[in-house]
Each structure stands twice: as C-alpha cells, then as structure tokens.
Amino acid sequence: MVSRVEFDDDGVVIECELNAVMSNRFIEIEWSTLKSQEIWLQGWQ
Fold first, then answer.
1. Beta-bridge partner residues of 25
2. What is the pLDDT of residue 45?
3. pLDDT digits (tens, 9 = 90+) for 1-45
4. First to last CA, the chain
5. What is the C-alpha separation between 15 and 44, in angstroms, rounded?
6. What pLDDT does 29 receive?
7. In Å, how far are 3, 15, 31, 38 from 12, measured between CA atoms?
8. C-alpha angle with apex 5: 1 to 32, nearest 5 degrees?
9. C-alpha closest to that of 30 among 10, 12, 16
10. CA atoms in the 13 A half-sphere facing the CB of 27
11. Residue among 24, 2, 23 nearest 15 (CA)
12. Domain boundary assignment for the chain
C-alpha cells in the first residue's frame, strides 16, 4: 500500500513510499511506476 507521498510547492508528486503489509518493508519508488501496467499489477494476481 502507498504509505507516504510528498509533494513539491506546486503540488507535483516528488516522492512515493510503499509499505509491504505482511513483511512491514518500506521502499521508495518513482510514482509513475504505479501507472505502468508492464511493471505494476493491481490487486492479487
């Protein structure tokens, strides 16, 4: 799940952090990665 999003002064996303619920790991990713269907699958697949 997305646990943190930071915006610049213009409201543009500059940082996105994901939290793995089961392992409680945190990773920072490029926010646009979430829009890529080749990289990211939505839901349990």
1. 20
2. 58
3. 888 999 999 999 989 998 988 998 999 988 888 778 887 776 765
4. 15
5. 24
6. 86
7. 17, 9, 11, 23
8. 80
9. 16
10. 9
11. 2
12. 2-35
CA 11 to the chain's CA centroid: 16
One-letter amino acid for residue 29 of the chain: I
The Cα 34–Cα 32 span in angstroms is 5
* DSSP character string of 8-45: -TTS-EEEEEEEETTTTEEEEE-GGGGG-TTT---S--
State the residue for tokens 């952090």: 17
- Give ∠ CA 12-14-18 in degrees, rounded to 5: 120
